[in-house]
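Exercise 3.2. Students should predict the tertiary structure of the chain below and write it as structure tokens, then compare their answer with the key that follows.

Predict this chain's 3D structure.
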Amino acid sequence: MIDRDEMTPGGVGSCPRHRHMDGRTGTAAGPAWAIRAIEPGDRADAKRLFLKLHTYNARLDPRFALSSDWERPFDAGLDRALAGCEGVGLLARHRVDGQAIGLALAVRRHDAPLWAVRDWLELEDVYVEPAWRGTGLAAALVARVDDWARATGIDTIQLYVTASNARALAFYNKEEFRPAQFILRKHVAVPHQTQQRAAADAVLKEQGS
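Answer key:
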């Protein structure tokens, strides 16, 4: 569960300051996890969970396979998000052994001046280790992202879900996300298509090994 007063906003439209947030089992057994903003020492664990998530996503859709150089842009994006108001990165750790068991990453998006509504938050990644699924941890991570958006003055959170990922679709529907658009994809044969797909398959195989 999330204690809402653990977020300490500096006022709507400013950057919220982060404190530790505890998840509790709901029994006398006490706390199960702690959620906090990602810190420099968490980077390796964040990468490990991120890789697990996208290795799974690539099995559903090969176009989501990470590149061989994915760590460089990941580091740069995480640095930008943690430096200011442009996003939030959260890591959940087991309260007893300190293992990283959950991750959430969200990035603030600014659309072109062509549009009247331009500022929104993209929930890019939510991952929970298999042993902790169904415990409420994923919902706790999303609730923390909600709090960050609210404290920052952002009223819209959007995300992308692979159409075949029924578990994720059910979870986000429960979290009150509703369909707003559909992405329609058409494959067009091009001369180097076979080579590109072979390269993507090789990267996916390496990540899954």
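Discussion points: The first helix runs from residue 43 to 60. The chain has a mean pLDDT of 83.
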